């Protein structure tokens, strides 16, 4: 009985670690996505302002 309990404890520990790792990868991916969205928004705004300045200079 002791061996079965030990086996189940080890198996649950390994399964638990896999779940934790998946959650960590998910959090890292979401942080990277937030950084990319912020960078694209900033570049898009600056690019829009640049085109507006060029258009105003040409008219």
Keywords:
single chain, 59 residues, mainly alpha, 1 helix, rod-shaped
Please explain how this structure is put together.
By secondary structure, this protein is mainly alpha-helical. The protein contains 1 helix and no strands. It has one helix at 2-58. The mean pLDDT is 85.
- Number of contiguous helices: 1
Overall spatial form: rod-shaped
The chain-level structural class is mainly alpha
Task: Summarize model confidence as the mean pLDDT.
Answer: 85
Helix content: over 70%
Termini Cα gap:
87 Å
Give me the secondary-structure topology.
Layout: H1 2-58
Describe the structure concisely for a colleague:
This protein has 59 residues and is mostly helical. The protein has one helix at residues 2-58.
């Amino acid at each position: 009985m002791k061996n079965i309990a030990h086996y189940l404890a080890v198996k649950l520990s390994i399964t638990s670690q896999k779940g934790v790792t998946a959650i960590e990868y998910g959090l890292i991916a979401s942080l990277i996505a937030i950084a990319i969205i912020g960078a694209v928004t900033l570049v898009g705004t600056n690019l829009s302002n640049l085109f507006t300045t060029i258009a105003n200079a040409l008219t």
